[in-house]
Design a protein that fits this description.
Elements (H helix, E strand, L loop, with lengths): L1 E5 L6 H15 L3 E6 L13 E5 L13 H16 L3 E5 L4 H13 L7 E5 L2 H4 L8 H9 L3 E4 L2 H10 L6 E3 L18 H4 L5 E6 L8 H14 L2 E6 L5 H10 L6 E5 L4 H5 L4 E4 L8 H8 L3 E5 L14 E4 L4 H12 L2 H16 L3 H24 L1
Helix pairs in contact: 2-3, 8-9, 8-12, 11-13
Bound molecules: ligand GMT.
Length: 381
């Protein structure tokens, strides 16, 4: 099938999922066309099965805000016509579902009917989409999608709760590709990061408020008062500077390494012992899943869809949002004993394997097939 994928090309989870999905679809023989404003960060290899079409938004001084949705809709119309695209899959409702629907309508005028699948990822529903300024447009574009999927049961519940949705929402969880993670790295340079007696704790995110970065630092601080440990912070975002300052104030600057954005998170995770995810809200927690496939135990909040990924007492522990002491207690339980740590590492790997792409990709393919057939029946017969 010829599929156009619209996503954010940045380090955010939705862009990563969309990119990995496109790459996997291409390896199964589909022709995949990414349409976005920059080449997605995880998209390294372009081929005859993977194409990238850049959306340009010409600057014009009259516009206080440059109209990205308009440029995206036009680019979609052109790409769909030029390459004979058969299905459009947009990731993140804002503004992708809106722009996708416009493209669909423009194409209909020319007798081209194309099904649109919208995947909801989290903040498009819980943080941004829910804002009264966006809500009518988000509700409209979800209801006008041919198929709607959400990455967790919790996000589905929240979407139905916050919006007036007439469409059925199908849950297809996020995934990882087990073959891409080599848990027995031979070049795993643990010694570059920490001394042998130190536990390595990691946090990876976009350092936004919702991630509760100060909780990460406080949890680590309290752990480090009890056992030798290092913290590796991966990512960039608005809360990073404050976090660096907090480390200085707490006197743990030397024990915390801020690495910035990285394309090599598996190399960092392969020598990590514990992953911290104390988020205020998380529709799924892809970063936790990536940690788990690298045999890293997870200490997280119990917000949103995290319990669907991090299983209490098996892959790690979950606490109420902001309950730093409980997180510290659970972390120390895991980290103090080699045998217990190993047990959680194995548990993390086992559960993460449930989300392997070989199990999830067929769900998307079946969905595409169904949407394609229904669209054909409704539009051409
Ligand atoms: O985590 C973020 O803030 C980025 C955001 C995104 O859309 O890129 O992530 C959301 O989608 C991910 C992939 O489906 C989920 O794993 C994250 O849990 C979700 N983030 C939130 O809900 C806060």
């Amino acid at each position: 099938m010829k599929i156009a994928i619209v996503c954010y090309p940045t380090f955010g989870g939705s862009g990563v999922v969309a990119t990995e999905l496109g790459i996997a679809l291409a390896s199964r023989g589909h022709e995949v066309h990414f349409v976005t404003y920059r080449q997605p960060v995880r998209l390294e290899l372009l081929s005859n099965k993977i194409h990238f079409h850049e959306v340009h938004v010409p600057e014009y001084p009259l516009f206080h805000y440059q109209p990205y949705e308009l440029a995206l809709s036009s680019k979609l119309v052109d790409t769909i016509k030029l390459y004979g695209i058969e299905l459009l899959h947009v990731h993140y409702a804002i503004p992708h579902a809106y722009a996708g629907y416009m493209a669909k309508k423009i194409l209909e005028e020319e007798g081209i009917h194309i099904p649109m699948i919208t995947t909801l990822h989290g903040t498009d529903i819980t943080l941004v989409g829910n804002h009264p300024f966006y809500k009518p447009a988000v509700t409209f574009s979800i209801n006008k999608s041919d198929v709607v999927t959400s990455v967790s049961e919790d996000l589905k519940r929240k979407t139905l709760e916050f919006f007036d949705i007439e469409k059925e929402i199908e849950v297809i969880p996020n995934f990882i590709d087990k073959t891409k993670y080599h848990t027995s790295f031979t070049d795993c340079q643990r010694s570059l990061m920490a001394n042998e007696d130190e536990r390595i704790i990691t946090h990876i995110s976009n350092f936004r408020k919702v991630k509760r970065i100060p909780d990460v630092i406080h949890v680590f601080h309290k752990i480090s008062l009890q056992i030798p440990a290092r913290l590796i912070m991966v990512g960039e975002g608005p809360e990073k500077e404050k976090a660096e300052l907090l480390c200085e104030q707490l006197g743990i600057k030397e024990k915390v390494l801020f690495l910035g954005n990285s394309n090599e998170i598996d190399r960092i995770l392969c020598f990590s012992d514990l992953f911290l995810l104390p988020s205020e809200f998380e529709s799924f927690g892809l970063a936790a899943l990536e940690a788990m496939i690298n045999k890293v135990a997870v200490i997280s909040s119990n917000a949103g869809g995290i319990p669907e990924v991090n299983r209490q007492g098996v892959t790690g522990f979950l606490s109420d949002v902001g309950d730093i002491d409980d997180m510290v207690k659970n972390a120390l339980y895991i980290l103090r004993d080699d045998a217990i740590l190993q047990q959680f590492k194995e548990g993390a790997f086992e559960v993460a394997s449930e989300f392997d792409i070989t199990k999830i990709l067929p769900l998307y393919e079946a969905l595409y097939e169904r949407a394609f057939r229904a669209n054909y029946k409704n539009s051409y017969s």
